[in-house]
Design a protein that fits this description.
4 helices; Jelly Rolls; 10 strands; alpha+beta; 165 residues; four-stranded antiparallel sheet; globular
Length: 165
């Protein structure tokens, strides 16, 4: 990020790490930098959400509600993104994201990203590859958790039913 806080720029991290300085500066101008104070909500579960967020600094938690209780779904730190799914399939947010400590995030909405794609197709392709990589990694992690939880549940029940094994 630039040392001049009046014109912040994206640092070479996460989904923008492969962009050159000029491309990051241009992309920065299509979005906005947001300070998120501890305890404040960035995204609220159930609300419309069509933005992609890149965490520049700080720590956030993604939480969901189950039976009126908050369940920690994930910890989000610098270099990570939030909102990737809704960039491609705009819908209501599936989780609430709150700052645990002071955080700075960069936000771009779908319309602004499409404008950047039209203006700078090659750098935009690098950003989209970064988003696809993030989605793929998270899907693999989710699959591994489901397999582990299913295996644990089956073991506690005494193994697989005969019709499955």
């Amino acid at each position: 990020m630039s040392s001049d806080f009046s014109t912040p720029e994206l640092p070479p991290i996460g989904i923008v790490e492969h962009l050159g300085e000029d491309d990051r500066r241009i992309l920065s101008s299509y979005g906005e930098f947001l300070p998120i104070h501890p305890g404040k909500t960035l995204i609220k579960e159930g609300q419309e959400q069509n933005s992609l967020f890149l965490v520049i600094s700080g720590k956030l938690h993604a939480v969901g509600l189950q039976n009126g209780r908050e369940i920690l779904l994930g910890r989000i730190g610098p270099k990570e993104t939030i909102g990737e799914v809704n960039m491609f399939d705009p819908a209501k947010a599936s989780a609430t994201v709150k700052a645990v400590e002071f955080s700075q995030v960069w936000r771009i909405d779908r319309e602004a990203l499409e404008e950047f794609m039209n203006y700078s197709p090659l750098p935009a392709a690098h950003v989209l590859i970064g988003v696809a990589t993030t989605l793929s990694r998270r899907l693999r992690q989710t699959n591994e958790r489901v397999i582990m939880q299913t295996g644990s549940a089956l073991q506690s029940l005494g193994g697989l039913p005969e019709s499955i094994s």
